[in-house]
Amino acid sequence: MTPPRIDPRTVPVTQVDTHLPAVHGTVLQPDALRARFAKSPVWQAEFLAEKKFMDRAPMPAAVLLPIVLRPEPTVLLTLRAQHLSTHSGQIAFPGGKVDDTDADAVAAALREAQEEIGLGAHFVEVLGQLPIYVTGSAFHVTPVVALISPDMVLRPNPFEVADVFEVPLAYLMNPAHHRHHRVDWQGVQREWLSMPYQDATTERFIWGATAGMLRNFYRFLQA
Fold first, then answer.
1. Which position among 13, 37, 140, 207 has the lowest Cβ density within 10 Å, counted as fewest Cβ atoms?
2. 187 Cβ contact list (under 8 Å, min separation 6)
3. For 30-72, what is the HEC assignment?
């Protein structure tokens, strides 16, 4: 089955979560993030599975949710190349399928980050993992949260990545920027989040699985 062709920017916004509190800035600092993962709170993920639009066997995958240690921490994101077979032209975390040679999801996320954007493992401090997120294209994605040295050296692979950029973590952890969308497509009601960010003259339209995993991270930090 061919995945639905939807321009997410044109789908109506049904709700903006201005009623929810932003994560306090102190919680977004490195030591606070380390402590949060060292002693995880009781919490519940909000977005765990999309409605299927591809009929195929589940495929394990892993992504790196990379928090760059700027004075005000940022999240490192990529714009996927237009020719890729899945999620082309979308904003995503570095990551991809878990290979048989990968020891675990962490190893897969680090390998993919190296292959996609040239991020060396020596710049990465892994904090922990968020719950698996199942995409409509049958990827079972493990988000691996990590702190990234601001001294990182990146060498994006142009075959896979069209752009690499950063968005302030505080912006993404403020639900006033979380927008809900809903659309009926081929008899199925589909819903997702978006978190558009204006980067100079470019709108970074973060949506779908990436936004869903960021929302789960918000719930984890707000618990």
1. 13
2. none
3. HHHHHHHHHCCCCCCCCCCECCCCCCCCCEEEEEEEEEECCCC
Q: Which helix (H) or strand (E) holds 126?
A: strand 124-129
Separation CA 14–CA 75 (nearest Å): 26
Candidates 140, 139, 148; CA nearest to 64 is 148
What are the tens digits of pLDDT across the range 30-76? Answer: 999 999 999 999 999 999 999 887 788 999 999 999 999 999 999 99
Q: Read off the tokens for 58.
A: 């589940």
pLDDT digits (tens, 9 = 90+) for 120-178: 999 999 999 999 999 988 999 999 999 999 999 999 998 889 999 999 999 999 999 99
Residues 75 and 215: beta-carbon distance below 8 Å: no
- Can you list the domains of the chain with their CATH numbers? 16-222 (3.90.79.10)
Taking the C-alpha atoms of residue 149 and residue 141, their distance in angstroms, rounded to an integer, is 24
Distance separating alpha carbons of residues 166 and 68, to the nearest angstrom: 8
Torsions phi, psi for 152 (to 5 deg): -55, 150
Overall average pLDDT of the 81-94 stretch = 68
